[in-house]
Specification:
Elements lengths: L2 H13 L3 H6 L4 E2 L10 E2 L20 H5 L4 H24 L35 H16 L10 E5 L13 E2 L3 H8 L1 H8 L4 E4 L3 E2 L2 E2 L4 H10 L5 E3 L7 H4 L7 H10 L13 H6 L5 H17 L19 H14 L1 E5 L12 E5 L7 H4 L12 H9 L4 E5 L19 H9 L3 E7 L27 H13 L3 E6 L8 H5 L2 E4 L7 H9 L34 H4 L17 E9 L2 E8 L5 E12 L9 E10 L4 E7 L7 E2 L5 E2 L3 E7 L5 H7 L4 E2 L1
Parallel strand pairs: 3-5, 4-6, 5-8, 10-11, 10-12, 12-13, 13-14
Antiparallel strand pairs: 1-2, 6-7, 9-14, 15-16, 16-19, 17-18, 17-22, 20-21, 22-23
Helix pairs in contact: 1-12, 4-5, 4-13, 5-7, 13-19, 15-19, 16-17
C-alpha cells in the first residue's frame, strides 16, 4: 500500500495502544502486543553487500568493490537480489516463530558516507569519495532493495547522517565540524539523492556535527524533514543515544538522552536508552504525542512492507537463497569490481607458456579476505588459490605457499620469524610465473569494536602493507619470475617499490565469497578487467602532508581538492583492450562521445565526463565528475554513447552552501580524470570541449 494508506492504518493501530505499549515499539527489538495481534519485530538487519549475519545468503563484493564497477544498473540488480533473499529468509524464519535480530526486512544499508580520508577503517563500506558516484550508486541500491511497487520488498536505510568518516576511536565524543560549503558540496548530496529516491529510513551517526549529536540534532532534522521532505523513519546508530550523556556530555541522564533523541525525531533506538522513555514521560521530558508520532512512523513502515496485512512477497520461497541467477549476478559484480592498476603485458597469463604457476601470499587461500565486513555466510567459498586451481586443472600445475602471516612475523608461535618465507621462495623458484596475493581483511580495517586492529580502533595508521607482507613481497620479487600482485583490500595501499618491480598489479578489493573464480577469470583472460578506482590511492608519504584525520574541511582531500599527484587517481583503471575517446561533442542535455577500442580484446569501459568551471571562485580545485557510463566496446570497434548532464551539475557551491552559476563550464571527456597522472599511466588524454 502507499504511504498515505499505511499512515492511516498505523494511526488507527497506534491509537489503540497504551502509551507504554507505543513506547515499547520504539526499541529496535520491539516486543509483541498480543492483544492487538502485533507480532514482535526486530528492526536491526544488515545487507551491505548481500543479506548479512543471518546464515546463508549470496555474497557480493564489498561495497567499495561494487562502487568500482561504476554501474548503477548492476547495483540496483544486487539490491533486488538482497531484497529477494531477505524476503525468503524472513518468510522462512517467521514460519518457525523466529523474529530475532537480523531476521527482519529493514536493512540498515547502504552506507553513503564520503570516504574522505584513506585511513578510515570503515571506508570500504562506502561507495567511495565522490558525491555523484556515491549518490548514483546509493540510489540504485535503494531502488533495488525497496522495489517499484506500493508494497516495499524491503526497506533501505541511508547511513550515517550526515558527517561521519572517522576517526573510529573518537566517534563517541567527537564533533565533526564542516563548513556550509563542504556540507552542501560533499557531505549531504548523497543523502539528499536517496531521500528524493524514497529511501524509507535514515540512520544518524555516532559523532556530533557542528556541535549537535547526529541522533539528536535539530539542524540535521530540519534539513532532512523540512528542507528535503523526508517522510520515513529515523534510527539511531547502535548505542549512539547513550553517547549523549557518556561521551558528548550534552545530557546528564539516560532519561534526558532519550528525550532529546525523541524530540529531534529519532524513532528507533538501536541500543537500550529508550527503555527509559516512560521515566522521561513521567518527568515531563517527553509527551505522549511525541511517543505516538514515532510509533506511527514505524508502523507505517511495517504496513508498507506488508508485514501487518500480508503481501505478494509472502510467496517468495527459501529456495531463492543462493539460486543460480543470484550467484551469477554476484560473479558479474566480482568481475566488474576488479581494477587493473598495472600491466606490462604479463596479463592475461598465457596458459600455453605456463606449465607451473606459483600462488603465494597470506590472502591467496583466505576466506576472510573474500568477504569484507557486514557479511553473510556462503554455502561455498572460492579463494584466489582455489579459483586458479579449478581453472588450470589439467592445463598447468599450481604450487602454493602461504609465505607469511597476514600481519604477525611468524605463522607458528614456536617457530622463528619468517617461518613461511623459504617455502614461498621455493614455490617461486619452481614456477614459470607467480601470483602474489597480498593485502588486508576485516581484522585490519573495519569498524571500532568489530576489528581486531585495536591500536587504531579499525582505522589504519599508514598506507603500507603489514611488515610481514612487505618482507615477503620483496623476497619473492627478488627471485625474478614474472609476477602479478593481487591486492585484496578495501582502501588505498601503497606497495612502494613492489609495484614498480611487479609486472602487473590487480586490485580485487574483497571480491565476495566466491570471488576467487572471477579473479582467476581475469588473470587468465576469460574476461577483461574493467573496474575504476572510486577512491584516490595516495602515496604513503602524502599522509604527512594531508590535513589531520580529525579535520573535516575538504581542502587537500579527495581527487577534487588534492594538490599533489597521487599514486593512482580516482577513476583510473586499465583493461585488456586499448580504448580511447576519439570524439566528443556537446549535445542538448549532455555529451555525445565516441569510444574506440584499438586493441585485440573485447572489454567494458567506463566513459567519464569531468567539468571545471573556469574563472569560478568557488569551484573545487580540480575538475569534478559530472557523468559516467559503463559500456561494452568490442575489439576493433567504436561505440557512440550519450551521457546526460543535468544543469545543476554545472553549478558550484558558494561559501553559504548555495548552488550558483559561476564561471565557464568546460568538459573533459575520457576514460579517467583529465589529470597528468592519469595521462602518464594510461597514455591517453581526455577530450576537452
Amino acid at each position: 500500500m502507499n504511504r498515505k494508506q499505511a499512515q492511516e492504518k498505523a494511526r488507527a493501530l497506534v491509537s489503540q495502544m497504551t502509551v507504554e505499549e507505543a513506547a515499547s515499539q520504539l526499541r529496535y527489538d520491539a516486543p509483541a502486543i498480543e492483544r492487538l495481534g502485533v507480532p514482535a519485530y526486530n528492526w536491526w538487519n544488515e545487507a551491505l553487500h548481500g543479506v548479512a549475519r543471518a546464515g546463508t545468503a549470496t555474497s557480493f563484493p564489498q561495497a567499495i568493490g561494487i562502487a568500482a564497477s561504476f554501474d548503477p544498473d548492476l547495483v540496483r540488480a544486487l539490491g533486488d537480489v538482497a531484497a529477494t533473499e531477505g524476503r525468503a529468509k524472513y518468510n522462512a524464519a517467521a514460519a518457525h516463530g523466529d523474529r530475532d535480530i537480523y531476521k527482519g526486512l529493514t536493512f540498515w544499508s547502504p552506507n553513503v558516507n564520503i570516504f574522505r580520508d584513506p585511513r578510515w577503517g570503515r571506508g570500504h563500506e562506502t561507495y567511495g569519495e565522490d558525491p555523484l558516484l556515491t549518490a548514483t550508486l546509493g540510489v540504485g541500491y535503494v531502488k533495488g532493495l525497496q522495489g517499484e511497487g506500493e508494497t516495499m520488498k524491503s526497506a533501505a536505510c541511508a547511513k550515517h547522517f550526515a558527517v561521519h568518516s572517522g576517526p573510529e576511536a573518537l566517534r563517541h565524543h567527537f564533533d565533526a565540524v564542516a563548513s556550509e560549503k563542504d556540507m552542501a558540496e560533499t557531505y549531504l548530496p548523497a543523502f539528499h539523492a536517496l531521500v528524493d529516491a524514497g529511501v524509507e529510513a535514515v540512520m544518524g551517526a555516532y559523532n556530533r556535527t557542528n556541535g549537535e549529536p547526529c541522533c539528536g540534532s535539530a539542524k540535521l532534522q530540519k534539513i532532512l524533514r523540512e528542507d528535503w521532505g523526508f517522510e520515513g523513519h529515523f534510527v539511531s546508530d547502535c548505542w549512539a543515544i547513550r553517547d549523549f550523556h557518556t561521551g558528548h556530555m550534552v545530557t546528564d541522564t539516560p532519561e534526558q538522552s532519550a528525550a532529546l533523541a525523541l524530540e529531534q525525531g529519532c524513532d528507533v533506538n538501536c541500543g537500550n536508552t529508550y527503555v527509559y522513555m516512560m521515566k522521561a514521560l513521567e518527568k515531563g521530558l517527553v509527551t505522549e504525542d511525541m511517543i505516538r508520532r514515532s510509533a506511527v512512523r514505524l508502523f507505517t513502515c511495517r504496513y508498507m512492507l506488508g508485514l501487518m496485512d500480508g503481501s505478494e512477497f509472502d510467496a517468495i520461497d527459501y529456495t531463492a537463497v543462493e539460486c543460480p541467477e543470484h550467484l551469477k549476478k554476484a560473479e558479474e559484480a566480482s568481475r566488474k569490481a576488479c581494477v587493473l592498476l598495472k600491466n606490462d603485458g604479463l596479463l592475461p597469463l598465457d596458459v600455453e607458456k605456463i606449465q607451473t604457476l606459483g600462488v603465494i601470499g597470506p590472502n591467496a587461500d583466505s576466506r576472510a579476505a573474500l568477504i569484507g565486513n557486514y557479511h553473510g555466510t556462503s554455502s561455498r567459498y572460492v579463494t584466489v588459490l582455489e579459483g586458479l586451481q579449478d581453472a588450470l586443472e589439467g592445463k598447468a600445475r599450481v604450487l602454493y605457499g602461504q609465505g607469511c602471516h597476514l600481519f604477525k612475523d611468524r605463522e607458528e608461535n614456536l617457530a622463528v620469524a619468517g617461518d613461511r618465507l623459504s617455502e614461498a621462495l621455493t614455490v617461486a623458484e619452481h614456477s614459470d610465473a607467480v601470483v602474489l596475493v597480498l593485502g588486508l581483511d576485516e581484522t585490519l580495517e573495519g569498524e571500532e569494536g568489530d576489528t581486531g586492529n585495536a591500536a587504531a580502533s579499525g582505522d589504519k595508521i599508514d598506507l603500507l602493507l603489514p611488515e610481514s607482507q612487505r618482507k615477503l613481497m620483496d623476497a619473492v620479487l627478488a627471485v625474478g619470475k614474472p609476477t602479478v600482485i593481487c591486492l585484496m583490500a578495501g582502501s588505498a595501499i601503497d606497495l612502494g617499490a613492489g609495484a614498480e618491480k611487479a609486472n602487473a598489479v590487480l586490485l580485487t578489493w574483497y571480491p565476495g565469497a566466491r570471488g576467487g573464480r572471477a579473479v582467476a577469470d581475469i588473470l587468465l583472460g576469460k574476461v577483461s578487467p574493467s573496474g575504476k578506482l572510486p577512491v584516490t590511492f595516495y602515496r604513503n608519504e602524502q599522509l604527512s602532508k594531508m590535513p589531520e584525520f580529525t579535520d573535516y574541511a575538504m581542502a587537500g582531500r579527495t581527487y577534487r581538492y588534492v594538490e599533489e599527484a597521487p599514486l593512482y587517481p580516482f577513476g583510473y583503471g586499465l583493461t585488456y583492450g586499448d580504448c580511447r575517446v576519439a570524439e566528443a561533442k556537446r549535445v542538448a542535455g549532455g555529451i555525445e562521445a565516441v569510444i574506440v577500442n584499438e586493441g585485440d580484446a573485447d572489454t567494458e569501459e567506463v566513459a567519464q565526463v569531468y567539468v571545471q568551471n573556469e574563472g569560478a571562485a568557488h569551484a573545487p580545485r580540480n575538475p569534478r565528475l559530472a557523468a559516467f557510463k559503463r559500456v561494452f566496446v568490442p575489439a576493433g570497434q567504436r561505440v557512440t554513447l550519450t551521457l546526460e548532464i543535468p544543469a545543476e551539475r554545472l553549478k558550484v557551491v558558494d561559501d553559504s552552501g548555495r548552488l550558483v552559476d559561476e564561471g565557464d563550464p568546460v568538459y573533459y571527456v575520457g576514460l579517467g580524470q583529465p589529470d597528468a597522472r592519469t595521462e602518464a599511466l594510461t597514455g591517453k588524454k581526455s577530450v576537452r570541449i
